[in-house]
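pasting for the record
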Amino acid sequence: MDSTKYSLADFIDIPDQDIMGRARLFAAYAEDSRQRGHAHYRRISLDGSGPTMQVVDPLTGQVNEMIYMASNDYLNLTKHPRTIAAGRAALEKYGSGAGSVPLLGGTLDLHVELEQKIAKFKGCEDAILYTSGFGSNCGTLLAMLTDKDIAILDLLVHASIIDGCKNTNTRFFRHNDMKSLERALEKAKDKYRTKLVVVDGVYSMDGDIAKLDEIVEMAHSYGAYVMVDEAHATGVIGANGRGTPEHFGIEGKVDIVAGTFSKGLGAVGGFIAANRELIQLLHFFSRSYMFSTAPTPQATGSLIAALDVIETEPELRQQLWDNIHYFRDNLTQLGFDLGNSETAIFPIIIGDDLKVREMCRRCHELGLYVNPVQYPAVPKRLSRLRISLMSAHTREHLDKALNILEHVGKEFGVI
C-alpha cells in the first residue's frame, strides 16, 4: 500500500470490511508510512518531557537526542523538584492508588485539598477532579445536557467537548466570530431549556485565545451559560497564570471552568470548577467521575505542589513568554505562516499533507522533534507542523531549532 495516497480519514470506515479487515488495511498503511520515515506518532522517549529528549528512531531503532518542541509541559513542572518531592511523599503515605471510586471509598483528604486549591485558583466556589481532561469535559457535558437542551460550540473546540454533546442538540459558530455566535444564540432563543456556549480558552492547534470577555457578555445577554476549557491556558496566560478569565479580567463571571492537569500543571487528570450546587450534582450524575477510580495520590500531591509553584515562581512563566516572543519574531522574519498564534503553540501552516510528512521527517533527521497535523485533524489546506515551547528551552535550543526550520523550509520551498 502506498501510504502517501491515503489519510487517516480513509480508515474511519471502510464499507466492505469488518473491523479485523479494516485493522489489517490500516496496518499495511502504517507499515508503509514507517518505511517512508513518516511514522511520527508514538515516538518513544527514554527520559520523559524536557527541553531535549532521548528518542528512539522508529525506523532505525537508534537513540537520538532531540530538541523537544512537541510537549504541552509549558512550565516544565513534570520535573520540577517540588512536584517530584510532593508526589514521592504522597506515594509513600497513601500508596500507589486511591483504591476506589471517589463517590464510595476513594476520596482522600489530599483530593479535597486539591479541589479546594484549584477552585480558589480559578475563582470558583468548588471543583471536582477527574482522572483525565477528556473525561472531565465529556462526563460533565453528558451529565448536564439532554435532548431538551442545546450546546453552542466554537467550530474548533476540543474533541472531548464534541463527544460530550452527543446526547444533546448542537450548533456551531465560526471560530471566534461574535456575529456568528450571536446568530446561533438568536436561533436558539426560547427553544431550549438550557443553553450552554462552550469554547476553548486557548485553541490547541492554532494557539489563539478565545474572545472570552465578549463571549460571556453576549451569551449571558441571551440567557445562556458559558463553559471554557482551560487546558492550554492554565499556568500560561493571565497575570498570575490563572488562565483566560484572568487574562480578560472576568474571573468569577464564567459559569463553568474546565481544564486538564496534564499540560501546564505537569501531571495527569482533569477538573471542573463552578458553583457548589453544580459540583454536587456532578458527583452523582457524571459517569466518568462515578465509575472511575479516584486520581492517584502521587499525581494529586504533585498537582498541589504545581499550583504552589505557579503562584510562587512567576519567573517560569516570564521565561516562557520571553521564549514565545523571541521564537515568534524569528519565525515571522523567516516568512513562515503562523496563522493567528498568540501563545506557546506555533502552527507552521503548510497546506499540503505530503509536504508536512516530509518536512517532519527532515526535522526529525536533523534533531528537532515537532508534530505533523494533517487532515482530518485540520482541513487539507491548513495542514501544518505544530510546535510548542517550554520555559526551560534555552536561547541555544531556540536558535538551533530556528536554523533547522529555516533549512527545511527552504528545502521544501515553504519560505
